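User: Please fill in residues for this 203-position structure.
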């Protein structure tokens, strides 16, 4: 398996069914009491639907799908709206990790170039420079007047972070594989092609 690059951005998707999967084991006792234990980290999956495409639009996508060899090889993909930050400063913010953080942490200190204001909104997804797992902000990240803010994330960190490590906060790519080894391409008699794909996060 190998990383093969970034999924083509054109013509873009007409719809994206984005899913959050948080596997949780539930056990019910004879008295009716339920215990719950999370058995794995949160995984992002999705069903991505293209608008009808011309042959010229579709062939580069089909070529990239051939490179994946089913679910063997992984790629980065930017999903419209899902990857987009909703912060009013999304186009100008630059941020890095402030201090060291351990596996399991859910609060991350950041240094930013925005002295006072919002840099990440609740529900935005982010990715740190040293690993490919994507995390979701669970609260707004607003700076304190000195460019510092606390980022609350889920799931908890899977890798430790070091001081000054970079973070992607806008147009955040997700590291994915195809969820299915068989892909169906809908060639139509009007010379248009329909296509949708299921993807699953890997890290």
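Assistant: Residues filled in for all 203 positions:
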């Amino acid at each position: 398996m190998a990383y093969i690059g970034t999924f083509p951005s054109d013509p873009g998707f007409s719809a994206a069914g984005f899913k959050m999967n948080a596997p949780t084991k539930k056990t019910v006792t004879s008295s009716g009491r339920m215990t719950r234990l999370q058995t794995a980290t949160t995984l992002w999956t999705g069903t991505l639907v293209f608008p009808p495409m011309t042959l010229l639009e579709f062939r580069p996508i089909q070529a990239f799908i051939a490179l994946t060899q089913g679910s063997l090889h992984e790629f980065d993909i930017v999903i419209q709206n899902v990857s987009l930050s909703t912060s009013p400063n999304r186009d100008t913010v630059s941020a890095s990790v402030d201090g060291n953080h351990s596996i399991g942490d859910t609060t991350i200190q950041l240094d930013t170039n925005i002295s006072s204001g919002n840099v990440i909104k609740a529900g935005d997804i982010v990715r740190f420079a040293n690993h490919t797992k994507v995390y979701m902000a669970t609260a707004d990240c607003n700076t304190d007047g000195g460019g510092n803010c606390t980022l609350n994330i889920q799931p908890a960190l899977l890798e430790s972070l070091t001081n000054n490590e970079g973070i992607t906060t806008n147009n955040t790519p997700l590291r994915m594989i195809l969820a299915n080894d068989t892909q169906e391409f809908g060639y139509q008699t009007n010379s248009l092609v329909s296509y949708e794909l299921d993807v699953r996060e890997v890290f």
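For context: The chain has one helix and 19 strands.
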